[in-house]
Amino acid sequence: MLHPFEALVIREARLLDARDYPAWVALYTPDCHYWVPVSPAMTSPLEGPSHCNDDRQLMLARTHRLANPRAFAAEPPPRTVHVVSGVEVVSESADTAEVLSAQIMLEWRQRDGFEADQRLFGGQVRHSLRRVDGDWRIAVKRIDLINAEGSMNAILAPI
Amino acid sequence: MDPASLVTDTHVHHSVYTDPALFRLEMERIFGRAWIYLAHDSEIAEPGHYVTRHIGTTGVIVTRDRDGSAKAIVNRCTHRGATLCAFERGEAPHGHQCPYHGWLFAADGALKMVPNRQNYAGVLDLAENGARPVRLESYRGFLFGTLDDAAGPLVDFLGPMASSIDDLVDRSPTGRLSCAPYVLRHHYRGNWKMTFENLNDTIHPGFAHAASVVSAKHVAEEVGSRDGLSPTVGMMLANGKPIQFFQDLDMMVAPPGHSYIGGHMGANYSPDTADRYTADLIAFHGPEKARQVLGTDRHLTLLYPSSTWHARYQTVRIVRPVRHDLTEVIGYVFRLEGAPEETFRNAIEYVNGANSAASPVISDDLELYERLRTGNGYDGAGWIPYTRGLNEDREAGNGWTRTPATSEAFIRNQFRAWAHYMEAA
Questions:
Q1: For chain A, is the Cβ count within 10 Å smaller at the N or the C terminus?
Q2: What is the SS3 string spanning B319-332?
Q3: ipTM confidence
Q4: CATH number of A4-145
Q5: What is the mean pLDDT of chain B?
Q6: Could you give the CA distance from residue B183 to residue B22 in angstroms, rounded to a whole number?
Q7: Which pLDDT score is estimated for A69?
Q8: Nearest-CA distance A1 → chain B (Å)
Q9: Would you list which residues of chain A are within 8 Å, Cβ to Cβ, of chain B?
């Protein structure tokens, strides 16, 4: 039996890999944030720009677009597999919890058929969880990519 | 090769995007001659603070000198050629020392010290071995550099487009700006000119970004009102405006290669912020000037060949050519010192949508740049027409032309500058 928080983190990764985006967004609280900072030194998305700083609306818009055949950049949609490791509950109260994990996402996006089609994203992930109506949901997902300060090419699939 | 033969009034040859030899010539003749935006004063606030930037493919270091002036040098040790600074920003109060053999250079490039000096007795003149200085000029706190000592003054290069920098600075209720320490970078495997030809193209969003428009509408329906939309979703929606809207909007073009189009994404400030900000601007500028500042609404200004400016969203982007088929775009966001915090949040929202590789809008553009690279890489691909709006100019003034925002006049203007730079002796 997995710890329920570890099960939630793994379930989120599986939903992303299955491209079941409505179920993915449903794991989050209504006032959630999905945050990919441009530096591990950032303490708030209001300090400067971010690769992603999504509220629920933007998560919905982003993932709805991936299913649109006119989204030519995602045709066919990228295929991903997440590897989740080192899940650790670093704090826990009756209604909140902080969970760290190390994650790697392997992504394949059909382009010219050569090595650039396959990419790796990875880093430290922090899930801030909150209990809503008895269920644990994700309030904040912060992804500190190991190349956070780096220059990115198009990112389509949520990490 | 005669580069001017690759450009006509109506067409450009595909090889300008894909030929590595032309790219090297561009580095020498365009990026080696133009004024290139490097840094803002606030990034090197204290003596010894430095940032590293590029002029074309040449690395440069911009340092605040002890006397308070800004100095720039080529980021290269004159001994064996190693780069001096590896980091994007830092502090070097005693100068820039090469990690290889310890040669030490002052902010202005002077060679201050060579270890084991006795080995060089009579065989090395320090005064002749300084790092190459880069000529700098500032316009209202924005530092531009050029590798061409014979280039005319910066204000002549900016021409009427200097008003877009005024627009940014004048939006500060203290006259001061500060550059956020965090920057947002994306890259694509394609030529640098593709960004310049895309950003003021108002016809592509309705097609290239159509999927984002559909998704933003879907979310708007779910939310039930456009007022409650988050700013990035609003930006996605803005690309769905009818083409007639952009046809009615103005574009201004001016040599060498610069352009801007009229604004079309309104303010998102809350009423409280808008009131306080207006009052702050009136207190600083007086009512008439404040009204003029707030009434100015420009979208992107492109300063060919290296930077793009959005005053309304306090954003400057540097377009950095790396190879003929690799380009990096670096987004900087500015705080209007003394203005309500919401003005900075608004700018962050904009730069996230406009410069993140993960933005639903930019990821479309990045895909297209790479398709352009592929299609224009075919042998004999041929000539590319840029005749859209050729006969639709609205007004010509002293050094500028006004056209509909749907026109490709800005691309024709860029290639006039391109041919001029490439041709000149």
A1: N
A2: EEEEECCEEEEEEE
A3: 0.96
A4: 3.10.450.50
A5: 95
A6: 30
A7: 78
A8: 36
A9: 36-39, 42, 45-55, 57-58, 60-62, 64-65, 68, 70-73, 111-112, 116, 149-156
